[in-house]
UniProtKB/TrEMBL annotation:
GO terms for biological process: cell migration; regulation of neurotransmitter receptor localization to postsynaptic specialization membrane; regulation of presynapse assembly; regulation of signal transduction; synaptic membrane adhesion. Its main location: membrane. It holds the Pfam family Glypican. It is found in: Cell membrane. This is Glypican-4. PANTHER family: GLYPICAN (PTHR10822), GLYPICAN-4 (PTHR10822:SF25).
Length: 454
């Protein structure tokens, strides 16, 4: 998405520049910085800059009116103060017709949706990354060790854990992760809603692709109504001073503002950004978002469905139940921390939620609100997300100079210190095994996540 949107903006700028050079020649070249500034600000907004889109677009049309007013009235001398007065009449006179109003609406909605959606993808990535770095508790490590290796002590080397036994162990080990599910699903629904905005009439591709034609239509509208506009401005701002005759003739000759705009033929347009189309990108990512729903609640099942982890649901009497080769009789506990109060396999302190995961829940909640605002067409503050959800630390994991500022959602800082309670494991052998099992659990989680995201 980042590659696509950036290239889309670059193509739109190149298309406008090429067509305006061809149509208006030196006249455009002398005023090209006005249009370059427009695209600089659009790009700056997209990558998270503090840009008010409406104010920026109003400023663009006011500056364009000042330049145009000089060109259509080359016989007069205009001071900077006079041109400031002219710009005040932009809204009242509508010298560019209805183009500025329509373009402002289209650009604002398209950019708000595109930027917020790309930011949402970054949030999903960062949440998964940070949660997958959470260390298992010593109790979870012991339960996993007992489930995977204690059958060997009984000589049951080929017997795998019972399916429901595995479920209870994983529900206990992933108790905090299970609490992510509700907010994660709401977040995914909000992402899918904003994705609809990327497919509708205000999608960024359909807005940016013809922006050169729209701006040229506005310029031609000003040309055709220049006399009426000028007269109304003269009435409001006063009659300007006339230039000397020789300078007037030279100014008229230099302006030559009679060119007519000819848009590109379809085959002349730049190739589609990133070699794809927005429709294809959105269709693909929507499918992935739908698959990612209920990811955290289904994680224990995804792990236990692996044939290396349990026997599955077929041989319920021929499996390791934690003490013997027999049926597992305990009921399966629910998802989430509160449901583990009666977990028979993992001792879980439900009064001490994992703060890393709690901060990710908060991060998802903050981003969901921004997505809902974007869906309604309201601009959202890009920069203050980290302030609202990071806790004490930025959590980016890199120096400012080295990190791209684009879509870095700093939800939390994950500490790498081992839990001090690891020291409570009774023997050094058990400690070594426990640590190896912690690594195994993280590997299992990573593989399960990777498989589901594919």
């Amino acid at each position: 998405f980042l590659e696509f949107f950036k290239e889309l903006l670059e193509n739109a700028e190149k298309s406008l520049n090429d067509m305006f050079v061809r149509t208006y020649g030196r006249l455009y070249m002398q005023n090209s910085e006005l249009f370059k500034d427009l695209f600089v600000e659009l790009k700056r907004y997209y990558v998270g800059g503090n840009v008010n889109l409406e104010e920026m677009l109003n400023e663009f049309w006011a500056r364009l009116l000042e330049r145009m007013f000089r060109l259509v009235n080359p016989q007069y001398h205009f001071t900077d103060e006079y041109l400031e007065c002219v710009s005040k009449y932009t809204e009242q006179l509508k010298p560019f017709g209805d183009v500025p109003r329509k373009l402002k609406l289209q650009v604002t909605r398209a950019f708000v949706a595109a930027r917020t959606f790309a930011q949402g993808l970054a949030v999903a990535r960062d949440v998964v990354s940070k949660v997958s770095a959470v260390n298992p508790t010593p109790q979870g490590t012991r339960a996993l060790l007992k489930m995977m290796y204690c059958p060997y002590c009984r000589g049951l080397v080929s017997v795998k854990p019972c399916y429901n036994y595995c479920f209870n162990v994983m529900r206990g080990c992933l108790a905090n992760q299970g609490d992510l599910d509700t907010e994660w699903n709401i977040f995914m629904d909000s992402m899918l809603l904003v994705a609809e905005r990327l497919e509708g009439p205000f999608n960024i591709e359909s807005v940016m692709d013809p922006i050169d034609v729209k701006i040229s239509d506005a310029i031609m509208n000003m040309q055709e109504n220049s006399m009426q506009v000028s007269q109304k401005v003269f009435q409001g701002c006063g009659q300007p001073k006339t230039l000397a005759q020789g300078r007037t003739a030279r100014s008229v000759s230099e302006s030559g503002f009679s060119a007519r705009f000819r848009p590109y033929n379809p085959e002349e347009r730049p190739t589609t950004a990133a070699g794809t189309s927005l429709d294809r990108l959105v269709t693909d990512v929507k499918e992935k978002l739908k698959q990612a729903k209920k990811f955290w609640s289904s994680l224990p099942g995804n792990i236990c469905n692996d044939e290396k982890m349990s026997v599955g649901t077929v041989n319920e009497n021929e499996c390791w139940n934690g003490s013997a080769k027999s049926r597992y009789d305990f009921a399966v506990t629910g998802n989430g921390l509160a449901s583990q109060v009666n977990n028979p396999e993992v001792e879980v302190d439900i009064t001490k939620p994992d703060m890393v995961i709690r901060r990710q829940i908060m991060a998802l909640r903050v981003m969901t609100n921004k997505l809902k605002n974007a869906y309604s067409g309201n601009d959202v503050d890009f920069i203050d997300i980290s302030e609202e959800s990071s806790g004490e630390e930025s959590g980016s994991g890199c120096e400012l100079q080295q990190c791209s500022p684009e879509f870095e959602f700093n939800a939390t800082e994950v500490t790498g210190n081992s839990n001090k309670s690891d020291k409570n494991v009774n023997t050094s052998a058990a400690t070594r095994s426990g640590l190896s099992q912690a690594a195994l659990l993280l590997s299992i989680l990573f593989l399960a996540m990777q498989r589901q995201w594919r």
